Amino acid sequence: MIDLRSDTVTRPTAAMRQAMAEAEVGDDVLGDDPTVLALERRVAEVLGKEAAVYVPSGTMSNQVAIRAHTEPGDEIILEATAHSYFFETGGPAALSGVMCRLIPGWHGLFTADDVRAVLRPHNTHFPVTKLVCIENTHNRGGGTVWPLSQIADIAAVAREAGLAMHLDGARLWNASVASGVPESEYAAPFDSVSVCFSKGLGAPVGSALAGTRAFIDRARRFRKMFGGGMRQAGIIAAGALYALEYHRERLAEDHENAQRLAEGISRLPGLEIDIATVRTNIVIFRVTSMPAAELVARLKAKGVLVLATAPDAIRAVTHLDVSAEQIEEAIQAIVEGVTQ
Ligand code: TLP
């Protein structure tokens, strides 16, 4: 099977498994797992933040961040298809008791004017707005990379209004490789940054949340409250640390494969794609000749797995476990799938 459902499907490499097998461990809730501590220090360094905390998933990382920035009844601002709102099972409402104010974006991106337009005057009738969330790259937007200047403009509006900024950087690594902007520069305008090791980097488990030491101390309490305090987590943190050191630069290959796939798709009847919007490892295309689910089923029968993300849309994601040759095979399967 050529599995393009997500970059979460990667399996740890032999070298990564070796690093995991040899990891020094301790009880992380008691603060003495040396491998987790090393990972947290390294993430903080790469992102240019004071501290970081290792968490089991990107979902927990985002939800811990939202909880740590807010109190129940507050409001947070997100793009309408942001993962934290769209794909985290109602977490902001259930875990933090906050309201989500949604901004419809362009491929997941919005502007400082969009934020200005939803700011509320101080008034006893209104919830208190606390946070602006940005997702880079943007998943449902199609792996969209944010221009740094657009983030800076939003941050300026947020600061002036006294709002904090959170970055869902599950695929920040992809944004940095695609744009040449270092992760720390992308992270600078944000009070908190979530990154994942289990997507493009290919580690089996885990994400990290970074910010000031005081913020991360508070986040650690919510990690424990949400059930994310792990014990000998060094075993999995070692895979994350390995991925962070050795799998970032190779993301360029995934981006090239995504380009190749997008070009193949653009030549086919019954499919629509704007190649210019494919910058990283996510390829989203429209299916006009049949229901997307039908094409998904035809591709599965030919050994290619993709996901329908809407009745007329399909997502294919390139990653560590898909070669350039397999992308050619996937294109061939799509050709047969739309013409059979
Ligand atoms: N995304 C997954 C699915 O949940 C959709 C995927 O296959 O792309 N932020 C972003 C931007 C994400 O794309 C994801 C996962 C998460 C957070 C959550 O990470 P996990 O799955 O570790 O909870």
Order of helices and strands: EHHEHEHHEHEHHEHHEEHHHEEHEEEH
- The proportion of strand residues reads 15-25%
List the strand order in the largest sheet: 2-8-7-6-5-3-4
Average pLDDT level:
98
Q: Quickly count the domains.
A: 2
Residues in helix, %: 40-55%
Characterize the overall form: globular
- Count of individual beta strands: 13
State the CATH superfamily name of the largest domain.
Answer: Type I PLP-dependent aspartate aminotransferase-like (Major domain)
Describe this structure in words.
The chain is of the alpha/beta class and 340 residues long. It folds into two domains: 12-246, Type I PLP-dependent aspartate aminotransferase-like (Major domain) (Aspartate Aminotransferase, domain 2, 3-Layer(aba) Sandwich); 250-339, Aspartate Aminotransferase, domain 1. Helices cover 44% and strands 17% of the residues. The strands form three sheets. Strands 2-8-7-6-5-3-4 form a seven-stranded mixed sheet, sandwiched between helices. Strands 9-10-13-12 form a four-stranded antiparallel sheet. A two-stranded parallel ribbon has the order 1-11. Strand 12 (307-310) and strand 13 (313-317) form a beta hairpin. Helix 2 (34-47) packs parallel to helix 12 (234-246). It is globular, with a radius of gyration of 20 Å. Ligand TLP is lined by residues 6, 8, 57-59, 62, 83, 87, 135, 139, 168, 170, 196, 198, 207.
